[in-house]
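Sample 1 of the test manifest.
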Amino acid sequence: MKKSRVATVNPRQKGVSPPKPNPKWGREEETEVFAKKVKLFRQGKISEDDFRRFRLQHGAYGSRLHMDYSMVRIKVPGGEITPDQIEKIASLSEAFSIGSAHVSTRQNIQLHWVQLEDVSEIMRGLVETGLTTREACGNTIRNVMCSHFAGVCPNEEFDATPYSMAIARFFLRNPMCQNLPRKFKINFACCDQHGLVRVADIGLVPATKEENGAKVRGFKIYLGGGLGAASFIGHLLEDFTPEGRVLATCMATVRLFDRHGNRENMARNRMRYLVHEMGWEKFQKMALKERSIVEMTTSYSTAQLFDVKSQEDTRQLPKAPRMAKLPMLNEQVTKDSPANERWLHTNVVPQKQEGYFTVFITLGAGDITASQLRVLASAIRDYSAEGVARNTPQQNFAVRYVRGTELRDFYEKLASVGLANPGALTIASAVGCSGTTSCNLAITNSHRLAKEVQRKFLELGLDTDDSLRDATIKISGCPNSCGQHEIATIGFFGGATRVNNSMTPTYTMLFGGSAGEQGELAKAAMRVPAKRVIDTILKVIELYRQQRSASETLHHWVVNITKGRGTAGIKDLEGLKAALAEVIQLPAPEQDPDAYMDYGSDSRFSAKTARGECAA
Amino acid sequence: MRSLTAGPPKKKAAKTSPGPAVQLSIVCDADTLRSLVRKKAVRVVDVRKADDYKQDHIPTAVSLPLARVLENDTPEKIVGILEELGVSDKTPVVVYDDTFGALAARVAWTFQYVGHTSAALLEMTFKQWKELRLETEKQARIFPRAKHSLNVNKNIYADAPYVEAAKSQPGKLLVDSRERLNFLTEHIPGAKNIPYTMVGSNGRILRKAEELKRFIENRGIASNAEVITYCGSVGTLSGLTYYALRLAGFQNVRLYSKSFKEWKALGKPKEEFKDATYWDLSAE
Ligand code: SF4
């Protein structure tokens, strides 16, 4: 393998040409301004509060209990990322961060423990490949998400990607959303299954409608959902919002929030509280009325800034060769199946485009090293006909448009750097926020726990059990839900509890959450010491295997229990709690001091937190 | 600009006329080295393992594995080695390795320390040299012994007491060259972190001077500060940072060659950061 200096054209390149153009989200001048502001701040010429506001607006969080360092959040709108961008992130992570990058649950990519003085250099590097950190944090419109299946999903009405990009472009740096009462999240789905539309401030699901004999495009728009210390499911604004009204609907919602949102009480200032306090009917009326005002008053030129056409991928992708079938996608595999078959079964799904497949790259809680990123970039160039990848809210990468005939070669390439672990689309792919590895608010090491769950589950081959496949495990290090524990089949959020007179890292365990258009929030059941979490999940699986009815999956079994519709053995959550009472017990502290410590720590547990910056 | 020759504008001249020996410092680019090799006006020093040298090396290079330099850790012995390699006071020396320049930097610094004034790092590693398909040879080289004077350059050296005293002296700055997570775990109190991974890029062991300058300026470090670099064990990573700082225009740079390994062995104080489990972020 030659370095780019020698070999610039890759003869094996099978992607379409030309490659996707540089999306130009970033602006060079912002990097200079950032470097200057850091100096002024260090010289004491800007107050800490002012600087914090500025820093967050540019995507840099303070790191856990050490303000000399930042977590730099790179926005990846719609999760779409080019090989050039991936390579750039690899280099930047080596030069200025810790040599690895972290995929977040909102399609951002985060670089941790960056010295504040180096943040501007990261921004400078990102601009070269068109990325930005602008408005990745702060009280603004955060990264606009789009289902990683959009465009390839067999169930979608149309590809939502260009709409998500156009919305992201319209609001980025837009004066109307630079100082909202609180952060604001917009998520696009592809269909009713995939996408976090019910847990966003605005969630949009593509829909079509017959009008005068013609099919018109539009969306089902949900407002006022969101996860956090108190979570809510979004409400459907109206049956169908035609595409021509999408911008006005979003603008109206943002304006209402800006005007009526709570700016006083930091703990209750997300839009979902406003909707909740006002009552949905009232909010809905106001939103529709505000939309009329927006439509009547917005200038033509402003409306033109929402340009879906310009965001469409007009490249003609080649047809994939037909192939007989890929048995491993459907047939049973076991822990002892050849690694490649197990991977095919748990990481690959067919697209609506015949002969093409979407391949998932299993990461541990979203972490990937710089050298792995480089191989990933090269694999995308070699094997994805669209020549880009998407990152997913499950903290993995999805590489789409891989020809069925080339899956084997693709696998080999990934396997050479440890990127071909199985289990991406199964219960083994546990989600974990950054927790105590870098977050100021964290109480527990949710990040490591998610990795431990994954390791154990792959070791046990739980990824090969199809009845567990639609179940999810998601873990947050505090009640704030960055790990999205409330939309997990089994979710956890971190806390500190006195157990046997010893302060102990614990998790509140929740059951029965789900994403998608019918998404529901999980219900909290009980506290589990950190070191008992894995055994407790395994116990749940054991109970399920004993008690399930014929075709019931783990996810359905759990959901039925949370609704009091379980089977005789375990009827409801109380029954499940009773069945788990024993497995959560800890031995006495003298017998097993380690059981009272958190993962990644060899000293006595104490919960330490500092000011969160989410609302700063 | 990156190959520093006798007078600033004479870079090209070095290629065409043999003239007096060129004066090298900091980095030497591939073209300059190749022309010096053709004119037999340079001693190329390969600091990789002896076996690697035997496979192939840059034409006319002599072998001096880093381990040999570390084993002969007195100025007298190092001068002895220089003489054995046929390096006189005036012989320009170019050092290279296959470890992103860190081993080469440690050896070049050692030559400078014993009084050799014309030593530079090759701008790239041997791997990159080969990727560019530049010439190599297999033949082991031996040159007639030369005479070299001993003139210890104390100004580029720091030991533990010097480091300890420097902490309280204004205008002196301690720089830790290890990677971020190692630094966070423990470091010499008051040290600032410039990881060695920051100073090179895109196949060059050191970035362009203006980039390095900007990094340092971002950090608000005054260009007239005295900087002492150290790393984890024997001054290799910090050797590279030493040259990065020199390239960025710092006149006054010292290497604490025994580095943090000695510091810890001496039981000196450390600064630790235990409030976060950052190691669990690494995907290794
Ligand atoms: S859920 Fe809590 S611990 Fe995890 S990243 Fe969010 S604020 Fe931090």
